Amino acid sequence: MVSTYIVVGSRGIVGNQVVKRLRDIGKLVFIKETSEILLSTEADLMASMLSSMAEYSVNPLESSIGLILAHRYRGNDIRCALDNERCITRDFTWELAKQCASLRVVVLGSITGSRVDRKLPEAYHYSKDLQKSIVRQSIRINNLHMNLLELNWFEKYPEAQASDEYTQIMVNLKQQLGRDNLPTVNSITDFACALIGLSPPPRGQSIVYDGGHSLFQSA
Amino acid sequence: MVTIKCLACEGILGDVLFSIPDLPLVDSFCITREDALAVPRYSVDLRQCKSCSTIQIASPPDTSVIYKNYIYDSSSSPDLSDHFSSYAQYITALVPSLNTKILEIGANDGLLLQKLSNEGFTDMMGIDPSPQTAGIAIPGVEIINEFFNETSVGHLKPKSFGLVIANNCFSHIPNLSDVLTLCASLLDETGTICVEVQSCLDLVEGVVFDYIYHEHYFYHSAQSFEKLAKIADLEIYQIDHVPTKGGSYRFLLGHAGFHTIDSSVHYWKFREELAGIHRGEAWNLMTDYLSGIKNALSKLVNGGGKSIVGYGSSATGTVLMRYMDIEDSINTIVDDNPKRHGLFAPHTAIPVKSPSMLEPTDICLILAWRHSNLIVPKLQRQSIPYVTPLPWITING
Lengths: 219, 397
Hints:
The complex is a heterodimer of chains A (219) and B (397).
Chain A: E1 4-8, H1 13-24, E2 28-32, H2 34-39, H3 42-55, E3 64-69, H4 78-98, E4 102-107, H5 122-138, E5 144-150, H6 164-177, H7 185-197, E6 206-208, H8 213-218
Parallel strand pairs in A: 1-2, 1-3, 3-4, 4-5, 5-6
Helix pairs in contact in A: 1-7, 4-5
Chain B: E1 13-24, H1 33-37, E2 41-49, E3 55-57, H2 63-66, H3 80-94, E4 102-105, H4 111-119, E5 124-127, H5 131-134, E6 141-144, H6 150-153, E7 161-167, H7 176-186, E8 187-198, H8 200-205, E9 218-219, H9 222-231, E10 234-242, E11 248-255, H10 263-275, H11 280-303, E12 308-311, H12 315-324, E13 330-334, E14 352-353, E15 363-366, H13 372-381, E16 386-388, E17 394-396
Parallel strand pairs in B: 4-5, 4-7, 5-6, 7-8, 12-13, 12-15, 13-14, 15-16
Antiparallel strand pairs in B: 1-2, 2-3, 3-9, 8-11, 10-11, 16-17
Helix pairs in contact in B: 3-4
């Protein structure tokens, strides 16, 4: 079982709920802000990460660490979006893997409902594609087990935060699927934890997790 | 130190990135065992041009040697027919009208021209030196059964084509900068050159190394192809990605300054930079990864005492067997294409037979691993144990 998690992107709607869920199910969670990763040197970043863990007596070289990437670039600048992915999804992860006995990563990052937010900029789609590429590259690193969840449909917003329009889209979708089985952020987090906790852990997988919507569409 | 010149631009090649020693001419499947045993082997060394960055085979054997027993035709590849159908629809949406004059370089047996004809195009020309091309008979299609060069197309009116298609042939043609210059001369002002090539990025990221063989001189990237295009005063204005050959680029080129550069051009160059395909480390990582597969495969084929049968008598299968050094452990190759039955594999003389000869006591090694989705159900129906070697080893049964 993996009990120590790092979450990147905790300020977003999804990342915030992921952290809460992890804590609810008894995990030790370290938060790494996207801005800190983008602005720090790798050496400083790792030193601060290890120092935070040491305070809780966690030695990553002797245990497996879970990493959930829930960041998302919100702008339109393609170059910036790609640079962010390089910095967070690849360089940070690769460097962190060097400090851990086993690093188990689930990328939720920019895969936050491509059909839920219809008017997404081009930069979003490129960063999403780049994440798949990085996950594919990760299979060559022995102690890195990196997988990606494709969340085509899920309940992104807690009920209180959802707009009327969003709620209506979800109601229609659930009617189409015939039952109330869309993933929620809690179920996504539980699924990510299950992947991270598997022995041996999978790697290089791009897994569609959308309550059966994709299969329903292709049937 | 020996200086080796770039086949694309005549620049100087750098250090070796990847090697396959003693590779027989991969698609030289022969009618007699003796001929097969006599098929020569040439080591393959990939290097990068210091000028245009094109990754290529250094000093490949002469084309007259490579194509001596060339039997490939587009129609024999199981996924190409569907691919060309959607490709033809893509072309229809790309060009201004069905009256657009089209030239296809490397038309092979005319499969794509036929699909374009089905879409309604009526003014087309195909050029290819292969014997299959001579047999093309499609209404409205003119055929030139020769290599694409100044001699064969010099008589054509300059700037007369709205679209020039080069589909998976720019990996095979030397003097590529000259070829692109010739294409540019035939292209009208706002026309498009549509080039589909296997992507070097996918080759490295997806470990599709078995497409590296003598007739594929070049392994193109967006970064290197852009430099070649510039020599011909062309520019890449869009890049699409298609799944053929383990992942391919479809470059759209036009005369410099006539098209808006799409963000896809920047994106693919970024991804290539990130993957480091123009640096040695990415290739070293791939070599290390393949060493692991090679060791595991060697134990597997030499360990059980069972008869090992290869599935797929293709060029890529020849590369796979050679690189993994397992030819001696394979006693038969089976293939769905009846034209291949009765032939012998190059240099090893392993006989090619119909899959109907497979027995449940055999172990089938799927050499054509990219078509596993088509092959595995057949093997499962016959209860044949099988092994998929790549992208990682999977053992069933």
